[in-house]
Amino acid sequence: METRKQLLMTGIFIVIGISVILVTILMLGGDKTLFQKSARLYVKFDQVQGLNPGAVVSLAGLPIGNVDGFEFDPETNKIKVALKIQIEE
């Protein structure tokens, strides 16, 4: 009976430990912040050569967000870039 209790406690400890590690990784994982407000802006460019999703967006040398994705706009023949900008309160 004591062995079962020890196994159960060990299992619970491991599950809690793995959960804490996963939450820490998610919170420190670059542009994937969970508890920060953000706004999505769209900008159109003629060319976006070398720009990748997840790339850092800077304003006056300070990082303010990340590139969220790309889309071709057939009406203007330009690339529509979605930017995810963090909002400071």
Overview in brief:
With 89 residues, the protein is α+β, with helices and mostly antiparallel strands. It has one helix at 2-28; strands at residues 38-45, 56-59, 62-73, 78-86. The chain is built from one helix and four strands, in the order αββββ.
How do the helices and strands line up, and which of them pair or pack?
Layout: H1 2-28, E1 38-45, E2 56-59, E3 62-73, E4 78-86
Antiparallel strand pairs: 1-4, 2-3, 3-4
Q: Could you characterize what this model shows?
A:
With 89 residues, the chain is α+β, with helices and mostly antiparallel strands. It contains one helix and four strands; from the N terminus they run αββββ. It has a four-stranded antiparallel β-sheet with strand order 1-4-3-2, with no helix packed on it. A hairpin with a 2-residue loop joins strand 2 and strand 3 (62-73). The radius of gyration is 21 Å and the shape is elongated. It starts with a helix and ends with a strand. The mean pLDDT is 86.
Write the H/E string, N to C: HEEEE
Structural category: alpha+beta
Mean pLDDT metric: 86
**Strand count:** 4
Features:
89 residues, elongated, four-stranded antiparallel beta sheet, 4 strands, alpha+beta, single chain
